[in-house]
Design goal:
By secondary structure, the chain is mainly alpha-helical. The chain has helices at residues 3-16, 32-39, 44-51, 55-66, 72-81, 97-122, 129-146. Residues 33-89 form the HTH cro/C1-type domain.
């Protein structure tokens, strides 16, 4: 990775670090709005009054959150109405952004090396497993350093 790109990734990983524990968070089946509202013993009418919408409007918002179609603006409005802060982030499923890049680089390198080795085998020039693994590791390092756009194909 070029120094600038490496620095950007390190900074991004640092910014996302506080969110690392969110992988353990299970979103309530009915969504956060419904869960928080009912935990606070707040009626739909009360929340609606804070949002200047009807009880039915609150129901639609809760349903849209539960089925994944709610907008960030709607979530932010609800959070503000009940003195909460909306926090969101996109976090890697496993590890860090740097780990994600490493995994993608290794996957791409493996694909390239195994395809090349297959062609070489057809010409009786194939290489052994140890050499294949070493070549994959070296190519993955090169792909990662160069941050090839093909990493995301």
């Amino acid at each position: 990775m070029r120094n600038k790109q490496k620095l950007l990734i390190e900074q991004l990983d640092q910014k996302l670090q506080p969110f690392s524990e969110t992988r353990k968070v299970l979103v309530p089946e009915r969504g956060w709005i419904n869960t928080i509202r009912t935990s606070l013993n707040m009626t739909m009418a009360q929340l609606g009054a804070k949002l200047n919408i009807t009880r039915q409007g609150v129901k639609r918002i809760e349903e849209s959150e539960a089925n994944g179609t709610i907008t960030l603006n709607s979530l932010k409005d609800v959070a503000n109405a009940i003195d909460l802060k909306l926090v969101y982030a996109l976090v890697p499923l496993n590890g860090t952004i740097n780990d994600l890049i490493q995994i993608k680089a290794e996957k791409l390198a493996r694909k390239i090396v195994l395809r090349t080795n297959q062609n070489m085998k057809l010409e009786d020039q194939g290489i052994g497993d140890e050499k294949i693994n070493k070549t994959i590791k070296e190519l993955a390092g090169e792909i990662k350093r160069e941050m090839k756009k093909s990493l995301w194909d």
